[in-house]
Design brief:
Helix 3 crosses helix 4. A two-stranded antiparallel sheet has the order 1-2. With about 140 residues, it is an all-alpha fold. It is elongated, with a radius of gyration of 20 Å.
């Protein structure tokens, strides 16, 4: 039985932020919009970038899983010896999506750090910036 594909938990909040929905004007104690317009504050812009990076990281994780499944399927019945052209192409594709996954993960970490700085989030040394930001998101975007 196939597992359902993972979905980004904050898709609706990202869309509402991109459409400048007034319901997200204040998250926690931080203003996301400039008071006299629908422009984003530094915190709002950092949150938007963070959510976009999280969405691309999830997509990259799904792509890695799909390519790995397909490669396993082909290798399962491959005869010993020299690999077929399909397996070689899948291995190249696997390395490409793994590289994209690493880039997406680094982008997410960079944006999480930028968001934590924008809202002056206190990051415990033992916890780390990503986990602290994820806890903040779960608390304030739920």
């Amino acid at each position: 039985m196939a597992t359902p594909p993972a979905t980004f938990p904050w898709t609706q909040q990202l869309q509402r932020l991109q459409h400048r929905d007034g319901a997200l004007a204040l998250l926690g104690t931080h203003a996301m919009f400039i008071a006299d317009g629908d422009a984003l504050t530094a915190a709002g812009s950092a949150l938007e970038q963070l959510l976009l990076a999280g969405e691309s990281q999830l997509k990259a994780d799904i792509d890695v899983g799909l390519v790995a499944d397909e490669l396993r399927r082909y290798q399962k019945f491959a005869p010993p010896g020299r690999p077929s052209v399909q397996i070689v192409q899948l291995r190249r594709q696997q390395s490409t999506v793994q590289q994209a996954q690493r880039i997406a993960r680094q982008t997410f970490i960079r944006n999480a750090d930028g968001f934590a700085r924008a809202i002056a989030l206190d990051v415990p040394q033992k916890l780390g910036v990503v986990e602290t930001v994820m806890r903040w998101l779960r608390t304030n975007l739920a």
